Here is the input.
Amino acid sequence: MSTPAAEQFEAELERRLAERTADLVELLGHQANCWDDERRLLARKLHDSLGSSMTALTMHLALLTRQLPQENALQERSKQMKTLLMNIIEANRELQLTLWNDKLEFLGIKPALCEAVEQFCSEHKLVARVSLPDEDGIYSREHGVALLRSVEEGLRNVLQHASATEVDVILDDNEDEIMLTVRDNGVGPGLRQPESLQCHGLRMLRQRARHLGGELSFRAGPQQGSVLTVTLPRHPLAQA
Here is the structure.
């Protein structure tokens, strides 16, 4: 039989645990935001500095090529240099996109999600269905990044664990909340627990969601595929 002192002690422990959990969620959320800002800044530097330099080199090479003697060896070397330069430009563009999706910032979450899903499914020969709200909602950068990262994590899980052929990405929102679902028709993880799949990625996404006052769940089972769901509240944090 518990005594008042024991109940008070347990209440104090619960209070301290709740405070520590809240502090941890806030810290991880702040850390994720810092990472996002650094990735965004690095992508911008790659675009503004390296990208502009590569464009200038392309123009200089074109001018130089026109001045070269029409010798096969020289023209072939110029062609090889142009191909190499184009490969560097494309690698730089892909690195920028990996670091930060400009469509998310300038066009919004819907074009960014569509591009991510279409590109992934085209590369890996999967059938993709994307369902989005008819109207363009207003999302903060934090909300947009959380949703986009959740889709990317869900797609990675499909590729690595689900053995799926079809993927559904569904974004719904209303006056109260935003809900994102990534669902596949794969076989699921078998006997493994869902948290063992990309555990650190899922945990960071869960902390992102909690930092924004929401939740993330991941459900999978044999022959049932996988379902990743993120729910975020439409509160003042979601204002642009």
User: Anything to note?
Assistant: The mean pLDDT is 82. Helices lie at 4-67, 72-99, 102-106, 109-124, 141-162, 199-211. The beta strands are 127-131, 166-173, 177-184, 215-221, 225-233.
